[in-house]
Amino acid sequence: PYLLYLHEKDKTWSKKMDFLLSVIGYAVDLGNVWRFPYICYQNGGGAFLLPYLLMAVFGGVPLFYMELALGQFHRSGCISIWKHICPIFKGIGFAICIIALYVAFYYNTIMAWALYYLLSSFRPTLPWSTCTNPWNTANCNRYMSSDHNVSWSNTSTSPAEEFYTRQVLQVHLSPGLHELGSISWQLALCLLFIFTIVYFSIWKGVKTSGKVVWVTATFPYLVLLILLIRGATLPGAWRGVVFYLKPDWEKLLSTTVWIDAAAQIFFSLGPGFGVLLAFASYNPFHNNCYKDALVTSSVNCLTSFLSGFVIFTVLGYMAEMRQQNVDAVAKDAGPSLLFIIYAEAIANMPAATFFAIIFFLMIIMLGLDSTFAGLEGVITAMLDEFPHLLVKRREWFVFGLVCVCYLGALSTLTYGGAYVVKLFEEYATGPAVITVVLLEVIAVSWFYGTNRFCNDVQVMLGFYPGCFWRVCWVAICPCFLLFIIISFLAFPPEVRLFEYQYPPWTTVLGYCIGVSSFICVPAYMVYYLLNTFCACRPVLTLLPERTMTPTQIDNHKSCFCVHVNGDGERVSET
């Protein structure tokens, strides 16, 4: 009981703003900066905002609200919460933890790249602004708007591209996934520094991480505002904005646009990773999580929209410099958009060193927020599930978890590590987490029951969720998630990075990694059924009536019967 008391005492935020900033920092990540602007431009510009908003209103926000309410009411992480909802679905919690580990294996490597850039920025001349470095090739072409004797051709490579591929990643030393090569010691040290920051930010719980996010969640907005003002003053910036927002209504007739909108809003808000459950479990019981869901999801969507202006003003500037169309410059939605195109634009600006420092510092801050959240989801889940074993050993458990994440990320630090990052990004998390969330919604709405869940919300907040939310949870959200899953299966991604085309066997490997997490769900169902009907002995336990005080129990000798299985889990009661 004392350990449980310590755990419950620790499960509170110091301030309400700590919670809001943590949720915003988790939801607003690197994908908001590089993926949303490109997806918006590619799928009809301003017209894309219509399917994006519809998917947010009818799919993303209801799921966001549901997870906050579940975590706050049951005060449990993603594993132990299922004993209150539907125990047979407990495997969902274990699957979520494995997915979170896979994310930690590759996501933090991107921050290690950004840290390498940040350390390289403390020079009078940025190393990716010249073609005279040892890693440069004969195709290196530094085109400046004032240098009219230099022309840009299809075979030209910018110094920023060669710095990224040949110096930071050193991907030219690896022929592909079948031969990754050695580990880059520079990136290994950068990643070690990143995980050191992560450890000392989360080792004491939300009381420490809640203070760190005051910096990591607010600083990116300051940098985005500075970069937006600077980008708007660059020559050709208007070209980028036109390409970003020019509506192409015909594209709304394409199924791909709606698929991209659904996937973008889902991965942007981030339900299904156990983070929202964990963060909400530290809230006071009567906290207004309904308002929190609306505020934080709105901030996330507006940040994505703002990031589009920041990125595309610079892309318009790059198109003006190269005398190309914006679509020729904005041809990559991945990290290359940040580490090549944007880095090259910064190198050609006045005060390039200053803008490079704040930009890559912003990238690191955006990534740290999401890492804090992802690992906190795992930590909360394990501490709730095994409090007697882990509550007094939280620091050591967090240390072991961080070490596992670092060791798991070593393959992404090799010369071919960028190929591994892409493989994890495409297969290890996407289809698996969507399937897990689909099962989560079905378990809550159809098995636990929408009426019972809404009654829980009424007990917490004092009002019953409206008809719109109930319909979304019962029907629209499952259809929303099923639509994304079918789209993934019907239109499997064609994975390609730089000039490397992923061979067919990597698809099999990728789906095996994805299934390795999802397999926890049916495996636990089988275990639970066998344990309940075959391996348990009926136990009749007499417990005092829950509504009575100890004095009343002594006076009335009232009790009720509970039938539990071999694991001590409640099956029925009278």
Automatic annotation (TrEMBL):
It comes from the Eukaryota. It is found in: Membrane. The keyword Nucleotidyltransferase does not apply. InterPro entries: Na/ntran_symport (IPR000175), SNS_sf (IPR037272). It is a multi-pass membrane protein. Na(+) binds at G25, A27, V28, N32, S268, N300, L366, D369, S370. The chain crosses the membrane at residues 19-37, 49-70, 91-119, 183-200, 212-238, 258-282, 294-319, 339-366, 396-421, 427-448, 468-488, 508-530. One of its GO terms (molecular function) is metal ion binding. Pfam families: SNF. GO terms for cellular component: neuron projection; plasma membrane; presynapse. Keywords: Antiport, Disulfide bond, Membrane, Metal-binding, Sodium, Transmembrane, Transmembrane helix, Transport. Disulfide bonds join C131-C140. GO terms for biological process: amino acid transport. Belongs to the sodium:neurotransmitter symporter (SNF) (TC 2.A.22) family. This is Transporter.
